[in-house]
Each structure stands twice: as C-alpha cells, then as structure tokens.
Design a protein that fits this description.
single chain; 227 residues; mainly alpha; Arc Repressor Mutant, subunit A; Tetracycline Repressor, domain 2; 11 helices
Amino acid sequence: MGGMTFQRARSEEQRAVRRRVILDTAAAMLTEMPVAQVTLNELSRRVGLAKSNVLRYFESREAVLLELLDVAVREWLEQLDHTLSEAVDASGTPVERADQVAAVVAASLAARPVLCDLVGAQAAVLEHNVSPRIAAEFKRAAIANAEVLISLLRPRLPELDEHAAFKFTAAAFMVTGAIWTHCRPSAAMLAAYEADPELAAMRMDFTATLRETLEVFLSGLLARATR
C-alpha cells in the first residue's frame, strides 16, 4: 500500500514538473513572438513532447496561456504596491493622487508587453477553446487578482468605495487590452501611416493613451463619489 502511495506521489510530482516545463517554455516563446503566433505544435516541439502528451497536462493552447496570464498579473501586482508607494503623494488632492495612480499603472503595464499582449487576447481568444472547469478556475483567479488591485488602490484613493475601486479595476484591464491591440497596427496600416502624414496622427502611443484614459475614468469616479 505504501508503495502505491509513493508511486502516486512521485507521479504527481512528475506531473507538476511537466506542467512547469510547459508553462516556462510557453513563457519563453512569448518573449520572442506575439500570443497569436504561439502554436501548440511549436510549443510541443520545444518541450520535446508529442502534442497529444502536452494535451495530457493542459487541455488546449488557450489553457496554457490563461495560466500564464494569471501568473503575469500576480507578478505585476507584487511590483505595483512598491511603485505606488513611491509615486503617490499622500498629501496631494484626490485628482493629483488619481493622476499619479493612472501614471503608475500605465507605465508599469507598458513595461510588461507580454502581460499586455495576453490581456489583449483574453476575451476574444484565450477564453475560448477551454472547458467550463478551466474557465471557472481562471475567473476565480481573476477575482482574487482584482481584490489585490483594489487593496492597493483604496489606501491611495480612500475617496473611492469598494464598488468604485472594482469599477476602475475592471475598466483598467479592458482598456489595457483594447489600447494594446490598437497600438499594434498591421504592416498595411504602418505603410498607410508612412505614406500619409495626416493618417499618421491616428497612431496611438500606448503609455500616453492608457494613462489619459485611466485619468479620465478615475476623475469620473471621484466626481461621482463626491456627488
């Protein structure tokens, strides 16, 4: 009986190691290519397993990438607390503090292109081709991450209640994904911008656009809070 327990434990340990290797390999691929180019075939080749074996550990390419998205968000949140502490002046007015929060969030996300790329693909791509179980696990993790972000936001902007802070958290992720996608124009769009200076004005800078959007959103929440 003890032998069977040992076998099972060793097998679970091996399974955890395999899952880690698959995740690490996919993470390394994302530093080389956008989410759209990460295929199950190439991932399997780099891991050194048959595709059918990779699918024993993760049910799809999207399941791998959703787990990486959760890891990337948690890593970002760990760093964000320290950055906010340095950048937000507690003696500032609510609007000044809101602008400082917006600037920190925008700059810290811009410094993490892989996270932004994953957020940009989340709703349209990554949440498809997964089972209800994986979908629920990811959403539970996303709620936990949102609660952490709220706990970082409210001490800097105590004027916002929990509900308003949650609204900001949800909006921050949605607009990050949308703006990131719009700031990655196709080759045809780049050529059009280059050929016509009037069109080039349509090109967006990710950090500035995200910062300005978050500033406006936070200003609106503060105005509603004092109404």
